[in-house]
Amino acid sequence: MNHMIVDLQFGSTGKGLMAYWLADRWRHTVAICAHTPNAGHTVIIDGVTYVHTALPCAALAESIKFILIGPGAVFDLDQLIREARFAAGRLDGKTIIVHPNAILLRIADKLLEDSTLAIRDIASTAKGTAAANTRRMMRVPDAIINHQKVIVGEAVHALARHGVGLRVSRNDYMEIIADPRNRCIIEGCQGFGLSIYHGMYPYTTSRDTTPNQLAADCALLSTWRQSTTVVGTMRTYPIRVGHTYDDAGVQIGNSGPWHDDQQELTWASIGIEPELTTVTHRVRRVATFSQRQLTEACQVVAPDELFINFCNYATTSYIDDIQAHLDRMGYDLPDYYGYGPRPLDVSTFRHYDCERQ
């Protein structure tokens, strides 16, 4: 059985944690992603925190043999090397295969995006994803990794010193995808509420974030849905990235609105230390759960299983209200519950004694 992890809110729902947990549990052999540098994925294993923007967190599972980076990815090879070096012990003997149509990030992409979005009052991470994708759409010859052979060669040698293989090959990529003996886990990026098609435009990311788009970004076979369980992830208190401010503390960028059935909160009001975004390290905004957002997301994503994370932030009655809404939508109880940042904190059943004192 293959699994695909898709975020039902605005991101940061624990996709990296769930991807690793499922890969470890189901003994997946292939981890696939099409990550972009504006979204970080985190998993804590044996007390070590791994933060990835290039590699899927599922790649750290012992059973994984191949790590595929799809044609829809935008990534920095230096960042990929840093992540692989940090996780070298867990990646030893594994092979990273990059689709030749994936985009290599440039410093100029970051600078262009930062200046352009600042003018439009949009609080973006400004990591260059949109600018890089624009180069691809304009058919700039050296936009994709296939035209960066010198840089790739240097990366191959750098990773080989840490026991990790790296290849850029369409044939190898597609052979692994098509091999029915492989059990694949596909790790989504960002959240449904940030989709450029389904989110609150223009306060969105620069691409779609739904399962069909993820399948295209990862070059999955057209029959992917028949053999793949889609796991929708959510959190008890949804977050958005923080607004941006100038040096004088004046707001210069807005990260977007909430749904009309939710209310913005402070971290102090729920008794939790403020969270920082993985990529920009800004204080996240936090709000009450939106039933409307969940309904819209499930209509489009149609998840087969559900993961509700950060249950340790909420009371039992609060979680019961979410489950009651799921019941009205025709879903059973969530399949997985998260009570902390570690794989050991993921459970397949409710702990009614978890209510915070």
Oligomerization category of the chains in this entry = single chain
Given this structure, which CATH class of the largest domain is correct?
Alpha Beta
Distance between the termini: 39 Å
Helix content: 25-40%
Q: What's the order of the H and E elements?
A: EHEEEEEHHEEHHHEHEHEEEEEEHEHEE
Determine the number of helices (DSSP H or I, runs of at least 4 residues).
10
Physical arrangement of strands within the biggest beta sheet? 9-7-5-2-10-1-11-17-18-19
Count of domain modules = 2
Q: How much strand content do the residues show?
A: 15-25%
The number of distinct β-strands equals 19
The overall average pLDDT, rounded, is 90
Question: What is the topology?
Answer:
Blueprint: E1 2-7, H1 15-26, E2 30-33, E3 41-45, E4 48-52, E5 66-69, E6 74-75, H2 77-86, H3 88-91, E7 95-98, E8 103-104, H4 107-119, H5 129-137, H6 149-160, E9 165-168, H7 170-178, E10 184-191, H8 211-217, E11 228-235, E12 239-240, E13 244-245, E14 251-253, E15 264-265, E16 285-287, H9 291-301, E17 305-309, H10 316-328, E18 336-338, E19 346-347
Parallel strand pairs: 1-10, 1-11, 2-5, 2-10, 5-7, 6-8, 7-9, 11-17, 17-18
Antiparallel strand pairs: 3-4, 12-16, 13-14, 15-16, 18-19
Quick rundown:
This protein is an alpha/beta fold and 357 residues long.
Question: Care to describe what's here?
Answer:
- The protein is of the alpha/beta class.
- The chain has two domains: 25-231, Adenylosuccinate Synthetase, Chain A, domain 1 (3-Layer(aba) Sandwich), CATH 3.40.440; 239-347, no CATH class.
- The protein is 28% helix and 21% strand.
- It contains ten helices and 19 strands.
- It has helices at 15-26, 77-86, 88-91, 107-119, 129-137, 149-160, 170-178, 211-217, 291-301, 316-328, and strands at residues 2-7, 30-33, 41-45, 48-52, 66-69, 74-75, 95-98, 103-104, 165-168, 184-191, 228-235, 239-240, 244-245, 251-253, 264-265, 285-287, 305-309, 336-338, 346-347.
- Strands 9-7-5-2-10-1-11-17-18-19 form a ten-stranded mixed beta sheet, with helices on both faces. A three-stranded antiparallel beta sheet has the order 12-16-15, with no helix packed on it. It has a two-stranded antiparallel sheet with strand order 3-4.
- The protein is globular.
- The protein starts with a strand and ends in a 10-residue tail after the last strand.
- 45% of the residues are buried.
